[in-house]
Amino acid sequence: FSSAPPCTAGLDVGIVLDKSKSVKNSKLAKVITFLGELIGKFHPAPDADHFGFITFHNKANLVFAFSNSDYHDKDTLIAKIASEPIKLEYETRTDLALIMARDELFSQAGGDRPDKPNVMIVLTDGKPTKPKGEKKFNFKTFAEGISKDFKVSILQRSFI
């Protein structure tokens, strides 16, 4: 038996990483190592898999978008993820990260390719901070609503 050939169809994979203090430095380091191993299973290339990377705490940060061709190379992509600073901040504004993913990453300007499937991986400790001024903010309801924009199903797991 020979192994099946790798999938060459290409994916747009958005990684959204929680860098809030509740995560803890040691766990963040493990997650960054995990991301390097995970990326090793994909095939970043101009015509194959493209990655985008968002980190968040009290604000969201688009580290790089699908359109950044520097990260269409596996070694460069893994090195960039590995170099992510192990620095944590207060608050867990998962809502801001998901909005940024929808509006900036999974967009034409962000390099989203309409003919390629989208995958979003959110790594968080699962304890979002309520937006300021929102007394009745329900993250599950928010996530279910925004997931319709992404056309994804909600799967809740705590990885961190």
Structure description:
With 160 residues, the chain is an alpha/beta fold. 30% of the residues lie in helices and 16% in strands. It has helices spanning 25-39, 74-82, 94-105, 139-150, and strands at 12-18, 50-56, 60-64, 118-123. It has a 4-stranded mixed sheet with strand order 3-2-1-4, covered by helices on one side. The longest helix is centred in the first third of the chain and has 15 residues, at 25-39.
Q: Give the percentage of residues in beta strands.
A: 15-25%
Overall average pLDDT: 88
Largest sheet: 4 strands, mixed
Shape: globular
Number of strands: 4
pLDDT under 50 segments (min length 5)?
none
The sequence of SSEs as H and E is EHEEHHEH
Count of alpha/pi helices: 4
Q: What does the radius of gyration come to?
A: 16 Å
Strands of the widest sheet, in order across it, are: 3-2-1-4
Strand pairing plus helix content: what structural class? alpha/beta
User: Percent helix among the residues?
Assistant: 25-40%
